[in-house]
Design brief:
Number of strands: 21
Order of helices and strands: EHEEHEEHEHEEHEEEEEHEHEEEEHEEEH
Number of domains: 2
CATH superfamily of the largest domain: FAD/NAD(P)-binding domain
Cofactor: FAD
GO molecular function: flavin adenine dinucleotide binding; sarcosine oxidase activity
CATH architecture of the largest domain: 3-Layer(bba) Sandwich
Helix content: 25-40%
Protein name: N-methyl-L-tryptophan oxidase
CATH class of the largest domain: Alpha Beta
Oligomer: single chain
InterPro entries: FAD-dep_OxRdtase (IPR006076), FAD/NAD-bd_sf (IPR036188), MTOX (IPR045170)
Keywords: FAD, Flavoprotein, Oxidoreductase
């Protein structure tokens, strides 16, 4: 029986998870092309950790997706004998019931989860590292944790190879040719070579416009973001289990954890507020004004950080859709090509589930959750094919 050739462009969490799912389905000719290396420094999936949290304001859809995704992460742990996820609990701080923390608390209670509502005296006793006086809606959710991002990527790469798939690094795709649906999709590489596929998945993170700009004008903007790493903090106060992951309005952070194998042990924090426009591959210039603003707010929230060392500031890029929901859909006019973009800085926790959903699109099977929310059609009035494209 003929086996379809599937090529996935991009070896971040989405591309690798999709390849893993397709191979598990029994599709054998699966190749992942990565322009640099898995977990390279400018990749959206790069780094030691990602937050797995259930809090999504008054949105009920994403918490249920988190639940499904966590089950799959734990299954992958069992399958690979790797420790990919560490429970941490999440402290939420907001102002009023209409705050993100307040809405998330009520939504999760309605869904059957059991987050706690705390008062200031309980915060002072359980989490004295935080100065919470300026917040009046305080929650703690034990159903949250930290994914070990780099290890997740390396584990998936190994699993793909064990299942007979191929991951090719230093293979940059510069164009996709698919004019004739009766012929194979042709992926042109920067070396001048060409690879043929029956199906293709585009999961290139912030590089999506460079690859598809002649195909489609996607409703996705790119923003510059920063991660801050603090050193020289006492483990007994800022490591697990004493210190949880936290969210305070747009701020979020992690307890002390190692930055890679034998790497330094740092506390990581950031702001989810969308930054200035950015372009992939450009030499990032750190906006010191933004860093000062974020660090001052972190100092106000966690006073001990003022005595810590800001050991590193890391720059990366969000690919932000207009409505901040993902885009998982077929390329208009060619269902052989699947788009995965618009991840808006919150996709890693869903990575293993998103791979399954994209695998369903490739195989044209019924997905485990409806994908209407992630279809391009929702932007019908806000995006368009380039004028020279043929409908």
């Amino acid at each position: 029986m003929y086996q379809q050739r599937v090529i996935i462009v991009g070896a971040g969490i989405i591309g690798l998870a999709t390849a893993y799912n397709l191979l598990q389905q029994g599709i054998h000719q699966v190749t992942v092309l990565e322009q640099a290396t898995v977990d390279h420094g400018q990749a959206s999936s790069h780094g030691a950790s990602r937050l797995l949290r259930f809090e999504y304001g008054n949105d009920t859809f994403y918490p249920e997706m988190v639940h499904l995704s966590l089950k799959r992460w734990k299954k992958l742990e069992q399958h690979t004998s790797q420790h990919l996820y560490t429970p941490t609990g999440t402290l939420g701080l907001g102002q009023g019931q209409d705050s993100f923390a307040g809405q998330s608390y009520q939504t999760l209670r309605n869904l059957g989860y059991t987050p706690e509502r705390l008062n200031h005296s309980e915060i002072a006793k359980r989490f004295p590292q935080f100065r919470a006086q300026s917040y009046d809606f305080l929650t703690y959710n034990a159903d949250a944790g930290m994914l070990h991002a780099s290890l997740c990527l390396q584990t998936l790469r190994s699993a793909i190879r064990d299942l007979g798939g191929t991951v090719l690094e230093h293979h940059q795709v510069t164009a996709i040719r698919h004019e004739n649906v009766q012929q194979a999709i042709r992926l042109q590489l920067s070396t001048g070579e060409e690879m043929l596929a029956d199906r293709a998945i585009i999961a290139t993170g912030p590089w999506v416009h460079r690859l598809l700009h002649t195909e489609i004008e996607l409703p996705v903007r790119l923003t510059r973001q920063y991660l801050l790493y603090f050193a020289n903090l006492p483990t007994e106060e800022f490591g697990l289990p004493a210190f949880p992951t936290f969210m305070a309005e747009d701020l979020y952070g992690f307890p002390l954890h190692a930055q890679g194998t034998n790497g330094p042990t740092w506390l990581k924090a950031a702001s989810h507020t969308f930054g200035d426009p950015a372009e992939p591959g450009e030499v990032p210039v750190v906006d010191e004004r933004v860093i000062r603003q974020v660090t001052q707010r972190l100092y106000d929230l966690i006073p001990a950080l003022q005595q810590a060392e800001l050991a590193k500031v890391e720059s990366y890029i969000y690919d932000v859709s207009l409505d901040e929901d993902f885009i998982l859909d077929y390329l208009p006019h060619d269902r052989r090509i699947v788009l995965a973009t618009g991840f808006t800085g919150h996709a890693f926790k869903f990575g293993i589930l998103l791979g399954e959903l994209l695998g369903a699109l490739v195989s044209e099977n019924e997905p485990v959750i409806p994908l209407t929310r992630f279809q391009l059609a929702r932007f019908a009035r806000q995006w368009q094919m380039p004028a020279h494209s043929v409908a």
